[in-house]
Amino acid sequence: MLAFLSQPWPWYVAGPLIGLFPAALLLIGNRLFGVSSTLRHGCAAVLPRDLAWFRYDWRREGGWNLVFVFGILVGGAIAAVLLRNPDPVAIAASTRADLVALGVREFSGLVPGDLFRWSALLTLRGWALLVFGGFLVGFGTAYAGGCTSGHGLSGIADLQLPSLIALVGFFAGGVLGTYVLLPFFLSL
């Protein structure tokens, strides 16, 4: 059973399961899927109520979301320990060549060690990627009113035009990040 779960599922199994998830959330209480609001709910749960932004009933509005994110973390840990796939990550030769041209040379793990090692994060390039990337993610989710998973799964499933517009913006930002920002930051 664990061997089956550790292999990539075919698109015709995984796709419908992902598609049924937002529909199930809508049926069990008109809940929208998304993780970007979890930080607000978590802060409202532990911080003093001095700020108006955190003065709301986080248990009613976001308690289920906090449990859901905890489940994501536990599920990730289970997948990393019990369902680990020993095969190397498949990277297209052209992508590997492009990354090598940008200075990324270590491809043995799940992510390039040149970028995702503690020693790499403690460099100017690492700090620039963390701070600027974190700013872009935070600003983008606040400006778009949600994250890619919330808009891409729940918003599109609910046929919301703002979610379609946000998704177009996410993809445009991804292209800009891949071809402009990433080469700039990797050259530092």
Return the string of H and E elements.
HHHHHHHHH
Largest sheet: none
DSSP strand tally: 0
By oligomeric state, this entry counts as single chain
Distance linking N and C termini:
46 Å
Q: Could you tell me the mean pLDDT? A: 82
Percent in helix: 55-70%
Model description:
The chain is mainly alpha-helical. Helices cover 66% and strands 0% of the residues. It contains nine helices and no strands. It has helices spanning 2-6, 11-27, 38-46, 58-81, 93-101, 118-121, 124-144, 148-157, 161-186. Helix 3 (38-46) packs across helix 4 (58-81) and helix 8 runs antiparallel to helix 9. It starts with a helix and ends with a helix.
How do you describe this structure in short?
The protein has 188 residues and is mainly α.
Question: What secondary-structure arrangement, pairings included, does this model have?
Answer:
Elements: H1 2-6, H2 11-27, H3 38-46, H4 58-81, H5 93-101, H6 118-121, H7 124-144, H8 148-157, H9 161-186
Helix pairs in contact: 3-4, 7-9, 8-9
Q: Which short descriptors sum up this protein?
A:
188 residues, mainly alpha, 9 helices, globular
